[in-house]
């Protein structure tokens, strides 16, 4: 017949168990300190190797590698909570030409393969009172500019066409550093010609905005700010692009307001 261990034996086993747990906890803390560079620095070989083993390799700015980041819903959701925060990727390799011929009709997106350039598709959508040359080319029309609130008379011509430009709400440079640097050409052409990401606007406002993200630039016409930010969220969700912390904070500020 077995007998219960005496209290001293139980105390001894408990003491050994606690010592083991404390030792394991200490090892875990040391590993974490080495991996994040606190103990020996990020460039130390020990830190580098442990980072690879644990899968916690960090960028120089402390953010996780963007290549492994999954963001967004894959649908044009206006909810910014589904967007992943990550440090901007490198702009190396970026060029407008990487996104294909500007305003090509040879693209598998809404409006593609309809015989009209993407620019003319958007002008036909956003301008009123338009006149056409043939079935596509917009020769004149009126734009109620969403960025300034001004009314602009558009006339096609070398000296006048630039008064109305087609803006990529999420600029192509921002697209590139938010996850698109590894995309193939068909996908790059899609986002460059997707009507969801395009808007006819005042030319000078488009140039002022440049490559800026939502936290860095908002339209002069504050009544349009919410819609502007909402469209950016929808684009970033649809194409699973990442955002910076400041960018997401701006998006959350406007969420649900329009």
From TrEMBL:
> Which residue ranges traverse the bilayer?
20-40
InterPro entries, A to Z: GmrSD_C
Q: Name one Pfam family in it.
A: GmrSD_C
Instruction: Print the keywords alphabetically.
Output: Membrane, Transmembrane, Transmembrane helix
The residues covered by the GmrSD restriction endonucleases C-terminal domain are 118-252
**Per the record's keyword annotation, is Transmembrane helix included, yes or no?**
yes
Cell cycle among keywords = no
Q: Which domain of life is it from?
A: Bacteria
**Residues annotated as region Disordered?**
54-93
Compositional bias per record (Polar residues), positions renumbered to this chain = 66-84
Give the signal sequence positions. none
**Protein name listed in UniProt:** Protein of uncharacterized function (DUF1994)
Q: Which organism is it from?
A: Mycobacteroides abscessus subsp. massiliense
């Amino acid at each position: 017949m077995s007998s219960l261990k005496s209290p001293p034996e139980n105390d001894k086993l408990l003491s050994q168990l606690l010592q083991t747990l404390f030792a394991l906890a200490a090892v875990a803390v040391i590993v974490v300190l080495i991996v994040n560079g606190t103990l020996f620095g990020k460039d130390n070989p020990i830190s580098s190797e442990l980072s690879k083993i644990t899968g916690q390799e960090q960028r120089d700015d402390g953010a996780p590698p963007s290549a492994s980041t999954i963001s967004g819903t894959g649908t044009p959701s206006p909810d910014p909570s589904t967007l992943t925060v990550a440090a901007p990727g490198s702009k190396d390799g970026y060029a407008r030409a990487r996104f294909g011929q500007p305003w090509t009709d040879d693209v598998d997106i809404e409006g593609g393969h309809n015989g009209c350039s993407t620019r003319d598709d958007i002008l036909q959508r956003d301008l009123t009172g338009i006149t056409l040359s043939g079935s596509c080319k917009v020769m004149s029309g009126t734009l109620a500019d969403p960025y300034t609130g001004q009314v602009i008379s558009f006339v096609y011509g070398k000296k006048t066409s630039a008064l109305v430009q087609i803006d990529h709400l999420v600029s192509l440079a921002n697209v590139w550093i938010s996850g698109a640097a590894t995309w193939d050409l068909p996908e790059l052409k899609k986002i460059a010609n997707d009507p969801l990401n395009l808007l006819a606007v005042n030319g000078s406002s488009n140039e002022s905005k440049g490559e800026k993200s939502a936290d860095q630039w908002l339209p002069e016409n504050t009544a349009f700010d919410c819609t502007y930010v909402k469209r950016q969220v929808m684009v970033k969700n649809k194409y699973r692009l990442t955002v910076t912390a400041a960018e997401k904070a701006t998006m959350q500020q406007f969420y649900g307001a329009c």
